Amino acid sequence: MVAAANVVEVAALVGDTARATMLAALMGGQSLTASELAFLAHISRSTASEHLGRLVEARLLAVTRKRRFSYYRIASPLVARMLESIKAVAAIETPARHQPRSAQEDALRFARTCYDHIAGRLGVAIADALVARGTVTLDDDGGAVTDMGTRELVAFGANLARPAGKRIFCRPCLDWSERRYHIAGHVGAELCRCCLDRGWIRRKRDTRALELTPAGRSGLAAAFGVDLDFSNADSVLRTA
Amino acid sequence: MVAAANVVEVAALVGDTARATMLAALMGGQSLTASELAFLAHISRSTASEHLGRLVEARLLAVTRKRRFSYYRIASPLVARMLESIKAVAAIETPARHQPRSAQEDALRFARTCYDHIAGRLGVAIADALVARGTVTLDDDGGAVTDMGTRELVAFGANLARPAGKRIFCRPCLDWSERRYHIAGHVGAELCRCCLDRGWIRRKRDTRALELTPAGRSGLAAAFGVDLDFSNADSVLRTA
DNA sequence: TGAACGGTTCGGCGTGCGCCGAACTGTTGT
DNA sequence: ACAACAGTTCGGCGCACGCCGAACCGTTCA
């Protein structure tokens, strides 16, 4: 079987703790420098440089050199999607055996960036609200923005012009912590951008976790009817 | 970053030539015995047994023991999807540098099973035809069967009842050889099954390649208007 | 011009793991 | 009962690769 060769290379690149940690950090959507990534992965800068070089050579990462810094980022949405799908498999692998339940972990479960859109309980709640009010449709087979929804989201500040790069417009993304869908694609990215611009959510340092500001809580409730006050039911795996 | 642990394990499992070869073989959708997989991967049975044990433990494969044989298969559509997405990334990685172009390879490019549905030029041609005649809709954001299409496919022999396991009904799957979409999900699986039942396509031994019979060629043309006679334009990357 | 700093390259060390053959278990058939 | 065969377990070998520190290159300030 000759067809598997490149698959092995790509998977092996992801299948190393240091590299996977750096890739996971970059799944936040931002660009990070080599030193930052070395720090996050707990390895020396020289080792990180080697890893990053290999990831760039394999086109999993892209790099831009500005001033004396090298900024690394996920090379394409295809790579982000691959990492998501691996995470989705990895999440079922452990049948809830040992959940560390650290504060760190809880913050990620509540809200985080998933490449360039919002995931976690917040991401799923937003998706639920938008589906309930008929702004978007979202099911196992795909997603779309309704005509009414287009007007609503444009009024909200989203740029819904189809991007040139032919990237996917609106699709469901399986949330590994909630095991339900949130909104990805161009629409998901625009929603995330708008919320950041408004100060409704803030990035935390050195993590993909997002912080929901009081303004964000009330704003999302007012704008879309997003309800985050289900009485601590986060332990229930809502798969419906 | 603690969240990446399982991802590393899963990716590392795929990132080994022998294991990836076995997984790729099982992407044909069938169950295979340990000895068959050992032969395909060019390793001893003892080594294969170790690999298979790890893959089962990690829930990437499932096994059923019947008589004195162990039959291994892909554990879930989620795993199949992950492998697809890795393949999609691996396919862009090499910018058409060295294409082996073996007969083996060509057969896979023409038609193959992708877990449980049809891929390759044939799979894409079927998808194109069904979209053109309005049987299904298929774009970057998802897929669906139209009302007219439901009647047509049921008349064709497909069982379009929503499966109990809540698996995805109709979705686009990025074909790594054609770099365009073919039909996956429950609908894709039913189409594949109907064609196999009719003798329109046949599995080849020890490979995921499919053979299109003369009856299949005329049958697909008559039933859905599938056209495979584009004048050897397979060298052109049609991304539109 | 030199010091500080980000990043990369290189040489060498240690180990994890993929591999096999041999031995063993369990099933099938004669 | 024994031989044949599918599959697994175990012990040991050898390589690949992940790691680091030191040296080196370029940029940016004093």
Q: Your description of this structure?
A:
Two copies of one chain form a homodimer. Chain A has 240 residues and is α+β, with helices and mostly antiparallel strands. Chain A has two domains: 5-75, Winged helix-like DNA-binding domain superfamily/Winged helix DNA-binding domain (Arc Repressor Mutant, subunit A), CATH 1.10.10.10; 79-235, no CATH class. Helix content of chain A is 48%, strand content 18%. Chain A contains ten helices and eleven strands. Chain A has helices at residues 5-14, 17-26, 34-41, 45-57, 77-93, 103-110, 120-132, 147-156, 185-198, 214-224, and strands spanning 32-33, 61-66, 69-74, 112-114, 117-119, 136-139, 142-145, 171-174, 181-184, 201-203, 210-212. The first copy, chain A, has a three-stranded antiparallel β-sheet. In chain A, strands 4-5 form a two-stranded antiparallel sheet. The radius of gyration of chain A is 18 Å and the shape is globular. At the A-B interface, helix 1, helix 2, helix 5, helix 6 and strand 7 of A face helix 1, helix 2, helix 5, helix 6 and strand 7 of B. Chain B binds a DNA duplex (30 and 30 nucleotides) through residues 16-18, 33-35, 43-53, 65, 67-70.
